[in-house]
# Entry
Amino acid sequence: MESLRIVLMGKDFELRVVSLITRSRELSDEVLLLDLGSSDSTVDLAKKVNCEVLSYSGETIAPKLATKLLTTDSEKTSLLINVNSRLKLRDIPLLVNRTKENWDIHMSFLNNEGNKTNPQEMDYRSVEISHLAATQLGLEKLSKADAEDSPMDLDEDLRVRVLYSKPLPKVKQRESLATASRFAQLFYWMLESRHPLILFGVPGIVLFAVGYKLSGDVLDNFQEWNQTSLGVGLAVIAITLLGLFAMMVGLILYIMGKQVKQIQSHYEFWPTED
# Structure
């Protein structure tokens, strides 16, 4: 069986790049990051785990991508994966299986709108590629195609299969990890800061103490319950519960931070601070 290299194509997926590279290394002989112009830490993290990075700013259509991959002087079968919000770690082994089916070219196009057109008749420029698995011969033939060509125009002696990837389910207000990256970065910073007890614990203790003290004053000063006393009482209860909640969050984040460090120690390629 021919050796395999996996090419992860995309940009700005710093929250996933290490796990994707690690999983890809388990299934292939080589992993390459084809960066499309990341503005976050994607490239830096990939380099920290010793993954080769190739920058690309051209069109992400099959012929152009095949031409770019041929510049790396690799004789391995290539599996290019478009890293987008629908890609899951469990999908990578399934895509690797496509390289074992004796196709010279096996690729899929994104189909977000339920397009019924035969994918083999779609010109390369009008579709976005989801994955491309190709032998060296397949890449050479594909690189000679024009952007306006379709897979139907490839040589008849090539073993080619083209299909659509499954469309994303239409769920209202669905927020992926990528779109929630700011919140995730804040959460990760709180884990890595090593001070969640100070960040949440100290304010929590202060709020809880203030709420506890005020609760005694409320009971002493208000002889009967009315709108004023009820409002003050609810405010005191809210302050007390907020303090208790902050203390619990600080403790949970502290424990999670310890667990994250323990998990990181089991990964040989986990990036560390310089």
Remarks:
- The longest strand covers residues 4-10.
